[in-house]
Amino acid sequence: MAIRAMETFEGPARVLIVEDHPVLREVVRIACDASPLLHVVGEAQTGEEAMEASRTLSPDVVLLDLTLRGMDGLEVARRLRREGRPVKILVISGRTDDHTVFESIRAGVEGYLEKTSGVRYITDALVRVAAGERVFTRDQERAAIAELGRLARRAREASGLARSVTPRELEILRHLSRGLTMGQVANRLGVSIRTVETHVAKLYRKLGASNRVQAIAKATDLRLIELG
Amino acid sequence: MATRPSSDRLISGPSPKRPLGVIVVDPLPVVRAGLSLLIEDRPDMEVLAEAGTAEEALEAVRRIRRNRLVVLVGLGLDGEMDSFGLIRTVRERFPGVAVVGCGAKADPVAISRALFMGADGFVDKTSDPVEFLQSLRRASAGEMVLAGPPAEWLGAIAEGIERRRMAEMALTHREREVLRVAAEGLTARQIAIRLGVRDRTVTTHLTRIYKKLGVGSRVAAIRVAANAGLVSVGVPE
Q1: Are residues A115 and A205 located together in one domain of the fold?
Q2: Which CATH architecture has domain B6-155?
Q3: E strand segments, B112-203
Q4: Closest to A215 (Cα-Cα) out of A172, A156, A184, A159
Q5: A-chain residues within 8 Å CB-CB of B118?
Q6: B85 interfaces chain A, CB cutoff of 8 Å
Q7: Does A154 map to a domain?
Q8: Interchain contact, A146 vs B169, CB within 8 Å
Q9: What is the tens place of the pLDDT at every residue in B144-198?
Q10: Does residue A38 sit in the same domain as residue A89?
Q11: Is residue A44 located within the same domain as residue A134?
Q12: Same domain, A86 and A170
């Protein structure tokens, strides 16, 4: 296993670095070691290693890259919270989109750093997060709130839509999303193709779609149906 | 309307020609007065109307024709229509008007309910007054705002919205109605009288509701519904 457990001692904050990019990992470790307030207790390259390391090494703070092979960083953050680990999480990511920032805050992390930040920012942020501060920019907070607004709008639309979409129409949509033709759907339901077409036309109107792909996309986005 | 001297204008960005109009809605007269004073003190904002009920608020919105209008809705409204109903109605009938929920130490469920109903944001009376007013400006500019509640609550608010969505999608309109009346603490017989149906109908509805919500008792059903913001239990705010 590629976890490197190092000597542990009290005093500085115990840091677990979760980063699969070798250069970045090395640079951060050197920077942390240079700080009297930080002490790297371990490094991990995948989500699984991160979970294992957090269990065995009990870090105070985790520097968590969101893009990892296999289990992604967000999932690591969620699992750490689910397991009730008293560890602070500082996320580092190349992504700055509203959705990622929102999901990170929603998952309960204490800070979000963009990869364009210099190394000095990283160690500063680690110290602050370890001390109990939240490290987010105003823009990030606004982005997360904007995304919350979108989530609320989608939820409202979905339930309004759910009230008007009949169970039959939903069933037909599910069949269509699995690739069945109108004929196959008609067979499956024991009705005429004309009946299926009527249902589908009504459904498209309700969803504001002009073809099957749009209808499925809209319904999936609103979580009326699940794909796969 | 008297024009304001230019020295009074806020020096932040392009100054709008007309002040931002605010309709202050709160059941308590003293709260309305306080909010109005706070808003009127700013040269770029003005209170166009005050309302103590949802009906009065809707009347004011109908009457006032303004390009930039924010309706500030306090959470404790009593009467036929409550605060959440007002938020939903303004959002549906007056799409160009910004509507912001306003609470006093509101909890995540109440906030998620306001957002689910279509509020353009939520400001709590615990927030800093300057931030409070700035949030109203940003809401009228189309931005989603959240002032007062700690950032840590974002997850809980999102979960509240999701729970509401799932509960709404699981239950029919009638079932939601039955649940709302049941939450007042009435017996099945009383619910039946209130809704004008037979006792048997009510118990059938309740059984189906329990099954859909995955619970085994009325108390549990009401708890799930309250957590989802589907019903109100006790005094709001």
Answers
A1: no
A2: 3-Layer(aba) Sandwich (3.40)
A3: 121-124, 145-147
A4: A172
A5: 152-153, 156
A6: no
A7: no
A8: no
A9: 999 999 988 999 999 999 999 888 888 887 888 899 899 988 999 999 999 899 9
A10: yes
A11: yes
A12: no
Which residue in A has a C-alpha nearest to residue B159's C-alpha?
A: A106
Share of chain B above pLDDT 90, in %: 66
Contacts of B165 in chain A (CB under 8 A): 155-156, 158-159, 223
Together in a domain, A173 and A135 = no
Q: Which fold has domain B171-227?
A: Arc Repressor Mutant, subunit A (1.10.10)
Q: Which CATH number characterizes residue A41's domain?
A: 3.40.50.2300
Cα–Cα separations (whole angstroms), residue A170 to A161, A195, B8, B169, B197: 11, 14, 58, 12, 30
Ranges of residues in chain A whose predicted pLDDT is under 50: 1-2, 4-9
pLDDT digits (tens, 9 = 90+) for B27-77: 999 999 999 999 999 999 999 999 999 999 999 999 997 889 999 999 999
Chain B environment of A158 (Cβ under 8 Å): 165, 169
| Model pTM score | 0.79
State whether A106 and B116 contact (CB < 8 Å).
no
Tell whether A204 and A105 lie within a shared domain.
Answer: no
Give Cα separations from A201 to A204, A215, A226 (angstroms): 5, 10, 21
In chain B, positions 166-205, which contact chain A (CB-CB < 8 Å)? 168-169, 173
Chain A residues with CB under 8 Å of a chain B CB are: 102, 105-108, 134, 136, 141-142, 144-146, 148-149, 151-153, 155-156, 158-159, 162-163, 223-224
B46: enclosing H helix or E strand? strand B45-51
Which residues of B are less than 8 Å from A153 in CB distance? 118
Residue A153 located in a structural domain: no
Contact residues on chain B for A106, CB-CB shorter than 8 A = 154-155, 158
What residue segments make up the domains of chain B, in order of their start? 6-155, 171-227
Facing residue for B161 by CB, picked from A108, A144, A152: A152
Q: What is the ipTM of this complex?
A: 0.82
How many structural domains are present in chain A?
Answer: 2
Q: How many CB atoms lie within 10 A of CB A224?
A: 22
User: In terms of Cα–Cα distance, which of B148, B164, B168 is closest to B75?
Assistant: B148
Residue B154 touches partner A, C-beta closer than 8 Å: yes
Structure tokens at A187: 């067979």
Query: Average pLDDT, whole number, for chain B?
Result: 89
Check whether residue A179 and residue A98 sit in a common domain: no
Confidence of residue B234 (pLDDT cuts 50, 70, 90): low
- Closest-CA distance of chain B to residue A125, Å: 18
Closest CA to A199 of A222, A172, A174, A162: A172
Q: Are A204 and A210 in contact (CB under 8 A)?
A: yes
Closest approach of B79 to chain A, Cα-based (Å): 24
Local confidence band at B15 (pLDDT 50, 70, 90 cut-offs): low
Q: Which domain holds residue A195?
A: 165-221
B143–chain A nearest CA distance, Å: 7
Beta A61-65 vs B98-103: how paired, if at all?
unpaired
